[in-house]
Design brief:
With 163 residues, the chain is of the alpha/beta class. The chain has helices spanning 13-24, 38-48, 57-64, 75-87, 103-116, 130-140, 157-160, and strands at 4-9, 28-34, 52-54, 68-71, 92-95, 119-122. The chain is globular and about 55 Å long.
Amino acid sequence: MAHFRAAILGCGGRGRAHAEGYAAAENAEIVACVDPVEENAKRLADRYGVEKVYSDYRQLLEETKPDVVSVCTWPHLHREMVEASVAAGAKGIHAEKPMAPTWGDSKAMHEACETAGVMMTFCHQRRFNPEFRKARDLIRNGAIGEIVRLEGYCPNMYDWGTR
């Protein structure tokens, strides 16, 4: 099993969730983290044994050259962080949704990753919630017949969806 070095950009609630996932993986090591609120980064580092804590994500990327980067910051920062991660040689980027505030930013992020051969994914954990899994199972089992039209609602498409 390959070993990979991960960095977390943004150490709030979602960054801590990413750290928990890396900590549970036998083949992952969190090598660095960064947050504009220094205490957030220090708290994550202490809990998960992260040796390097930064206040500047560019410095983190330059010095640690992580294999995988988690982007857990506000959407307006995603593009610059993804592009900087690609430039630093990351092989994979897992970011929080929404992807970006504009279609242009989303497209630029995709193109940067596609050109460099970087795998970029986004966290869509809601699909694992019981209500979504139940709907999926009903459809798969034919319990509600053939689907010819589907409508949905969510209270915040910007946060729940990906641009």
